[in-house]
Write a structure and sequence with these properties.
The complex is a heterodimer of chains A (278) and B (209). Chain A is mainly alpha-helical. Helices cover 74% and strands 0% of the residues of chain A. Chain A has helices spanning 10-35, 66-101, 104-119, 122-132, 136-147, 150-164, 167-174, 179-215, 227-238, 244-271, 273-276. The radius of gyration of chain A is 23 Å and the shape is globular. By secondary structure, chain B is α/β, with parallel strands linked by helices. Chain B contains seven helices and nine strands; from the N terminus they run E-E-E-H-E-E-E-H-H-H-E-H-E-H-E-H. In chain B, a hairpin with a 2-residue loop joins strand 4 (57-62) and strand 5. Chain B has a domain at 2-17 and 27-66 and 73-82 and 141-200: P-loop containing nucleotide triphosphate hydrolases (Rossmann fold). Helix content of chain B is 30%, strand content 22%. Chain B has helices spanning 42-49, 92-97, 104-110, 126-137, 156-173, 184-190, 197-200, and strands at residues 2-9, 19-26, 31-34, 57-62, 65-66, 75-78, 144-148, 176-180, 193-195. Classes of the chains: A mainly alpha (278), B alpha/beta (209). At the A-B interface, helix 7, helix 8 and helix 11 of A face loops of B.
């Protein structure tokens, strides 16, 4: 069989994809920082311009550059996503480990909590929590963090339970290994990749839900350039033909959510010995 | 001497006894066979003897003392499926070191090649992996080996090769061996006697199909 000498192996391609995703995310942060005040100041001479060379995403009814506003919105989304997804993942890790190792009663309690969390409509829960926490970025982060742990909790609980009954772990204790040694050497290498991938795959959920929450008006103050707020504002101008106000930020949001999905799946492939060396 | 005294086991109170009042003795250096149809409890007995499952009644003794609950167990079990007996995220080098670093001589006897050390379990074949499991089980503290269908999934040539190695090691170290297998020719060839407990008992209640 002929192989193309220029074709990259899967590991290199995976590394490149991961690197590309990280570059994209840092670019958003750097661009948002470089834009400074731009995107917040009004410029009435440049009102309602469609996308063009000088303003790739057009301008809004106050002459603000939509590209700058979208980048800033993405930065806020990423920050909220990072905070909320990390909190959720840590809650999931602790609850999952507790359910799998601390006996039946705790397991039943955690499983019940997961069921309740998953059965409640997400958006209702999000609105309730963010409202109860007084709104703002803090309210959004708490709401997203407090509602996204059940799925990952179940994954971690199942993983640890399956490991505990596996032959090689029982065999390890018959070879004279202590429970602490088994936890460190057998459990950790399985749970850490699950945790990391779970964390990355929580990002798109967190970002989209945060945007949904602000779109409905339950999040930040109206002049923050947040994607949900941009979309909500654009609604009023869509009928006048200013399609770019909704399309550009909407696409940017979907693309960044999808980037996290790609990143998560590639990290998983990299951490799994079955795909690690392909 | 590995000894089971009035041993009994069942999976939960609503199930019938898999074995009850079972007595068994294997002396050092002895090779004992056990064969019976599927589902009678051979593997469960092996797990009880190796300390994987606590007996419901009776006890397992080694030289008159009960099996230690911590530390290296003198009775080691070898499974039918070696790929389930190793951590899929560990490389072979680490798997081998889990018991007691096997000597180069033992590795050579078992035909474990240095190139395997850097591989993951799924990158080895079943027979290669079973040798790794065997090397791990053969720490100096191991006195009895329970081989539960250990070579059933291997081809005849590999089977013969692995058994030749085990019999050599068992002879030189005076290990006691319990060979559980459906292969009655294998048992007839290598074992000095046969435990017929599970063959004699009537088919256990298995009415729910």
């Amino acid at each position: 069989m002929m192989t193309n000498p220029l074709a990259l192996d899967r590991r290199t391609r995976t590394m490149m994809v991961i690197f590309g995703c990280l570059v994209l995310f840092s670019a958003i942060f750097i661009a948002a920082w470089l834009y400074g005040e731009q995107g917040q100041v009004t410029n009435l001479a440049l009102r309602k311009l469609p996308p063009g060379w000088n303003q790739p995403f057009g301008t809004d009814w106050l002459g603000r550059d939509m590209f700058a506003r979208t980048i800033k919105g993405l930065r806020i989304s990423l920050e909220i996503g990072l905070a909320a997804a990390s909190c959720s993942a840590i809650i999931a890790l602790l609850l999952g480990l507790a359910a799998a190792t601390m006996g039946r009663i705790i397991d039943v309690a955690v499983t019940w909590l997961c069921d309740v969390g998953m059965a409640t409509p997400h958006l209702v829960l999000l609105i309730l929590i963010s409202f109860a926490c007084g709104g703002g970025a803090k309210g959004v982060i708490i709401a997203v963090a407090a509602s996204h742990w059940p799925a990952l909790t179940r994954v971690i609980r199942a993983e640890v339970m399956q490991l505990r009954t596996s032959d090689y772990i029982k065999l390890s204790s018959r070879l004279g290994k202590s429970p602490a040694w088994i936890a460190r050497h057998h459990l950790l290498p399985h749970v850490v990749p699950q945790f990391l991938v779970g964390l990355l795959l929580l990002f798109p959920h967190a970002i989209l839900h945060a945007a949904g929450l602000t779109f409905l008006g339950f999040g930040m103050s109206p002049h923050t350039p947040e994607i949900g707020i941009l979309l909500a504002e654009s609604m009023r101008y869509l009928t006048t033909g200013m399609w770019w106000l909704a399309v550009a930020p909407g696409l940017a949001l979907i693309l960044s959510a999808m980037t996290f999905d790609v990143l998560g799946n590639n990290v998983r492939a990299l951490l799994d010995p079955k795909t690690l060396r392909e | 001497m590995l000894e089971a005294r009035t041993l009994a086991y069942r999976y939960g109170k609503q199930h019938s006894w898999l074995f009850d009042d079972l007595d068994l003795q294997i002396t050092a250096g002895e090779i004992v066979g056990m064969s019976a149809p599927s589902g009678r409890g051979k593997s469960t007995l092996a797990k009880v003897l190796a300390g994987y499952l606590p007996p419901a009644k009776g006890s397992v003794m080694v030289d008159g003392l009960p099996l230690p609950s911590s530390g290296h167990c003198p009775v080691q079990l070898l499974f039918q499926h070696p790929e389930l007996a190793v951590n899929p995220r560990w490389k072979v080098a680490k798997i081998l070191q889990e018991g007691e670093e096997p000597s180069a001589e033992l590795r050579q006897d078992l035909g474990i090649e240095p190139a395997w050390l850097d591989r993951y379990p799924h990158e080895l074949s079943g027979g290669e992996l079973q040798r790794v499991c065997l090397a791990r089980a053969l720490s100096s503290g191991t006195r009895y080996l329970l081989c539960d269908e250990m070579t059933s999934m291997l081809d005849a040539l590999t089977q013969a090769h692995i058994w030749r190695i085990i019999l050599n090691i068992a002879q030189s170290r005076r290990l006691g061996l319990l060979v559980i297998s459906h292969d009655t020719t294998l048992i007839a060839k290598i074992c000095s006697r046969n435990i017929s407990y599970f063959e004699d008992t009537a088919i256990m209640s298995n009415s729910r199909i």
